[in-house]
Amino acid sequence: MDYIGEKCPVCGEVFTAEDDIVVCPECGTPHHRACYAVENKCANAAEHSTGKKWERSDAEKENVRICPVCHFQNSRSALNCQRCGTELKDIEPVRQEDIFSGEREQRREPFVMPEELADPIKFLGLDEKEDMGGATMKEVSDFVGVNTFYYLPRFKRIKDDGLKPSFNFISLIFPSLYFASRKMWLWAVIAAFLGILFNLPANLLIYGKDMSVEFGKFVTDNKQMISSISEICLGLDMAARALSCFFANWLYFRFTLRTIKKNRNGGRPSSALGGVKPMNMLIITLIKGCIGFLAIFLLYFFFDMLTTISDFSTL
Known about the structure:
two-stranded antiparallel sheet, single chain, 2 domains, mainly alpha, 4 strands
């Protein structure tokens, strides 16, 4: 421990780096070794029975260097952190009482989150200034918002290794909902359209009989063929979902970088248009319903038109 600047309680002289210092095992009071040897006891021995401990002077309390990495409180003369070894020569000393005051204020505020927990980049040990391909890691983290812990390592692997495939379970089960919630509307509409297209034959088997007598008869007469087409479409739907599952993170990474660049050029914050918007899932569900209804209606319309044309041709 550093006692430089403190005073010996026997001679009153200020300790220097060259002094030979001994410390009382009872109360922690430092002495010159020679001064301690005069009485062979602590200068504050009379107060040992009270349990009082030695405290640093106010001047020493003002000279503490806080490590910017691990936040350990080092002595004012420390050039490197005693805990992690970080260089401290450019760190200005601060008052200990100011540190304690700040900690008390933070404890009184129940909704203040410590910086280490609030900043996911520091938690993951990644460099917030790292270039991810036109945007820094910090900008990417701000844009992603929710689930940063999941996306940052995958984005970094995509950038470093060039590996596009990675597993995204949500985009496997609900591809259109995933893309819509992340505001990737082009891919959300494409996923919705493909989902409706590949499920159309199965929906015909279920709802076709209730549309009209003629259309119901058509479905019944061609049930085997529609069932075969439905099985093929089911396989295509699973293939499309698999592609979405393995490439959704890569698509989202590209979307993130592209949007951040647009935000920068437009003078907007990097996080603009980022994060998750649950309301978009309801919107894409309504869009899917409209597209599905339109597809069934058009199919019935063309069937009815062909039937009419066929009837006229027999006249």
